Amino acid sequence: MKHLYSAACALLVSSALFLTSCKENKKLPVYGLRETKTIKNADGSAGVDTIYQTIPAFKLLNQDSVYITNDHFKGKIYIADFFFTSCTSICPIMHRNLKTIYDKFQDNPDVLFLSHTIDFKYDTPSVLKKYAKKLGVDGPKWQFVYGPKDTVYTLAEKSYLVAVMQDSTNRDGYVHQGFLVLIDKDKKIRGAYDGTNPEQVAQLMKDIPVLLAEDNKADKK
Amino acid sequence: MRKSIITLLFLSTLTGIFYSCQTAERIQQDAYYVNGRDLYIKHCQNCHGANGEGLGELAPPLTDTVYLKENKTQLACFIKNGLSAPVTVHGKVYEGKMPDLNMADIDLAQVIVYITNSFGNKQGMYSTEQIAADLKKCK
Description:
The complex is a heterodimer of chains A (221) and B (139). Chain A has 221 residues and is an alpha+beta fold. Helices cover 37% and strands 25% of the residues of chain A. Chain A is built from five helices and eleven strands, in the order αβββββαβαβαββββα. Chain B has one domain: Orthogonal Bundle (Cytochrome Bc1 Complex, Chain D, domain 2). Helix content of chain B is 57%, strand content 4%. Chain B is built from seven helices and two strands, in the order αααααββαα. Chain B has helices spanning 2-20, 24-43, 45-48, 65-70, 72-81, 105-115, 128-136, and strands spanning 87-89, 92-94. Chain B has a two-stranded antiparallel ribbon. In chain B, α2 (24-43) packs across α6 (105-115), α5 (72-81) crosses α7 and α6 (105-115) crosses α7. Classes of the chains: A alpha+beta (221), B mainly alpha (139). Chains A and B meet through α2 and α3 of A and α3 of B.
């Protein structure tokens, strides 16, 4: 009888723990550099605010030869990556995985996609358009953008924290990291996932609803 | 009862022995298949997919058994030298460029054995000698 009682107690405690752990609101971390700023609170006292790294304003040509700026992503979350159309190594697998995510969130207007080409010589908007069509992507949800080398490479390394470079010793001519970078409504980096790793891609798929839920809650406040 | 169990055991052992014996050619084909799978994962899977499903209209699937059968003697050329001419697979035209992978004859034979015996294909063995002959006829 005593055993039964303690067993019941243990069950109760563990189930209580289990329930509370479920209720906890999951939040994604914020990546990138950050700095602090002294601010004045509403009541006049001094406080400290954290300034997070954000994606700066950009203006790049998309697959329809139309300029795309930050405004396109206003109030949306998006996944950004860097690739080039003639890439034979990691890009096909990255975009195969990203396409799966694209298909899953096809009907969700709050999730967008942005692929930057790093082949500034060959990947003109018309080439990007053809590539997108062949991948099975149409419409403004997934943007493929083209820009001058400096602009795109600086954006990659300084803002999205993805290494890209020209490499004459590589048979494709360019090398880059295969990260899929998750950006929130405030242009902050909330995750980076290796687009060639199925586990990390699955994690990204799980994290997108978490980020969406987080933003919806902030709206209600 | 006991007798029948013993007979059953004996018979199943016999059939086991019988089926574990394979012809030398079959063993070689299996070896090629296994090595070919490693090569496929390394060189082909990125574009053609883990199940040979292809990638949109960028890379054709490898599930068109008729195409692979009719063009078998050209496969070595495609893989070794790349391909920029359009191909029609499953009735769809694919225009993308395939890179040249410049593999040795034995590797070509192994990867071709893997592809032509996976994804619904079942074409059996393909030897290094056949590859060498095919490569001489590359366009």
